[in-house]
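Predict structure. Chain length: 384.
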Amino acid sequence: MKWAVVVCAMVALSECFIQVPLEKGKSAREYLEEQGLWDQYRLKYPYNPSAKFDQRFAVGNEAMTNDADLSYYGIISIGTPPQSFKVIFDTGSSNLWVPSIYCNTAACNNHKKFNPGASSTYRNNGGALSIRYGTGSMTGILGYDTVTVGGLPVTNQIFGLSESEAPFMQYMRADGILGLAYPRLSASGATPVFDNMMQEGLVNQDLFSVYLSSNAHQGSVVTFGGIDPNHYSGAISWIPLSNELYWQITVDSVTVNGQVVACQGGCQAIVDTGTSLIVGPQSSISNINQMVGATSQNGDVNLCSLYMVNCNSISQMPDVTFHIHGQEFTIPGSAYVRQSQYYGCRTGFGNGGDSLWILGDVFIRQYYSIFNRAQNMVGLAKAR
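Prediction complete.
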């Protein structure tokens, strides 16, 4: 499998871990901008990233939203013989699901579909799966099969086969989602893939790590069962979880030029590979964007606002620093500003409309992130 990499430490060949390369493809936003459809799309399907973490859907129904900037995906396979799918490795959810031949919505017809009849190891579960979106839903059935991740065969893995999907999924490059949060979050009580990896003894350590390369198209990787020193420099800061449901931690404050602009007195944040931006409450995000010189595209502040900056001033823009567990995690202007040939330069700080913060890909690209299930901690180190 060209998309599976086994890495072994020089000191002991038994200390191996599995890496799944991530490809950074064109995002839904980029596709829609090229087609001249972005303004119409974002008004029709408003972006509410915090809906994904609505506690009302923490067990049973799992909330998601239409993040048009998601662009990282890796390849897994399901069944015997294997059927390959591009999936988002999402630390903000817990279910695995892919499109199926039972689905004929526009979103499914634009992606690969799993055919259970073509797999000799498939077993029907008989249960239903419903995953709630901010602007629609994914519904389907549950089944069991061998799911191969980075060459690791996870046998009898429960997963969702979609029968319908929200319309915005048709613009995403990924076929489905592989959730990496805690089992308590999982819809329909389905055991997450990584939990089965641990139970079956497929990983040396009960942790996985994520590196999102600054390179536009290659170098990003998810590592199962280990920490790859090639992807970070300096010491790892270990941060205890404040809630073992998501990968949730406490942020002490957020500063710009030494001035506290958000999270005064502390706030809660989720480290989430399935969110593209750094997201926070509207007032806090507005403060940060104002301090870095950004203005709302529409002159108002709402969940759909794009905060724009002068593309020529990026090098002079101040750092934004997150103070977490006694350590400083700094995001420079070059990391939090994204440039579009159609819409100019905008910041990676988005309104969430909630008290909860989300440290998405803008943050993770700067800090190699380790998700430690054995000790219920997140490790952060400066990404190379």
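Summary: The CA atoms of residues 335 and 362 lie 7 Å apart.
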